[in-house]
Amino acid sequence: MYLSIYSFYIITLEYNLHIGCGLRFLHVSDTHLGARPYGSRDREADFYDVFSEVIDLAVEYGVSFVLHGGDLFHSSNPSPKAYIEAIRGLARLRERGIDFIVAPGNHELPKSAGRGSPIKVLEHIGLLRSPRDPSKPDVFNVGDVSIIVFSEWASSYLFNPDILQLYNSRIKIALAHITLCDILRDVEGVPERACRDRSYYSSRIPSGYSYVALGDIHTPWELRVPGRPPIVYPGSTEYLGVDEYRRHSERYVYLIDIESSGDISFKRIPLKKPRRWIIVEDTYSNVLNKLNVSSISRLSSTSDKKPILYVKVKEPIPRDRRDMLIKHIHRLIDDGLILDYRLEVEVKGSLVERKYTSGVSVDDILKTEVFGKINIRDMDKILGILASMVKPESDLDNLIKELIGLLEGSEDTLRVLEVALKSK
């Protein structure tokens, strides 16, 4: 059903859900599937691990739906592996009747005309819901709850109070991918002049919403002001870099309960699978003292995953000391105490250096990414499965399982599909 008003349209989709006994949903954002910080495969896997944990939490808490604030993917042209992990998780939700609603973000929206979005691919096979036209807001109705969705392209509509007048539901929830300038300034310390639109402020959001679910800012943040709707950024689910860890060393999803009375309550659910960082910033001698095996071993034991080490030496040092420090850090890697490291040090007579090692040898990279036979027959099977998925009578569940099994069985096939996707 289309309603033309003020140059935008709203699409209403009805769900067979009711809130007579209350309703529960999960709010998550910025999962960035496919991100590979510093080119590390282990780091790429971290984003998939945490996404799987989010799916587990949605199932464990028995939510009716999941709201995703955007940047589900890290790229508008994700790798086959990123598609696999998204399909795997979303298929689990669909099996349990849990809807997944996304406000597409700037990372997954196409950068040029004529290019598709990975969000639309997953929506086409029935794994999620998103605005029909990303440049306009859409509404999804769940019983007496209206979820008004704004992609990054439609984020300016969030401040339009006229949208609220279109619906008589008791409860209206906004889901948007947007950067609010005051939050960017206060939480992440970014000057307001760097904001994409300097008119975007939390105070401009209409008070008629019951809950404002946002995405884009990676630091968890919430605003509760009497007489105003709660405005929440859950933050990213995994750290893209040390600065994100430094700003907030925990990651969350939000669990929201809507009571039959219409009252809303929410709480943070800590995520357990994000990889930890160890940050050491000091003079050279103090850095060496802090990087002793017992100290690092104690810090590493707090998580099932080996942490990443970030070291900053706060004084210029000779090159030989720099090399000695690097050797010491590599011993920590060899001892299995850390996964990788990031080193910032100023060598006397030179500029600041940053060094990172992923622990993957050049030979390994060449073997897995350059050489090997390409099985074109597998590619034909993949294209056949994708073609079948768009048919109304198709058995999507079995097709998805067949696709995952085929892609997981061959690195060569993954590589072929990746080339095909990038050449669209």
Q: Can you tell me the residue ranges where pLDDT is under 50 for at least 5 consecutive residues?
A: 1-21, 355-376, 419-424
Percent of residues in helices = 25-40%
Radius of gyration from the alpha-carbon trace, in angstroms: 23 Å
Estimated structural class: alpha/beta
What is the chain-wise order of helices and strands? EEEHEHEHEEEHEEEHEEEHHEHEEHHHH
Description:
32% of the residues lie in helices and 22% in strands. The chain has 12 helices and 17 strands. It has 3 domains: 2-270, 4-Layer Sandwich (Purple Acid Phosphatase, chain A, domain 2); 277-360, no CATH class; 365-422, no CATH class. It is of the alpha/beta class. α1 (41-60) packs parallel to α2 (80-95), α2 (80-95) runs antiparallel to α11 (396-408) and α10 (376-389) packs antiparallel against α11. β6 (138-142) and β7 form a beta hairpin. The strands form 3 sheets. The protein has an 8-stranded mixed beta sheet with strand order 1-2-6-7-8-9-11-10, with no helix packed on it. Residues 1-21, 355-376 and 419-424 have low confidence and may be disordered.
Brief summary of the model shown:
By secondary structure, the protein is α/β, with parallel strands linked by helices. It is 32% helix and 22% strand.
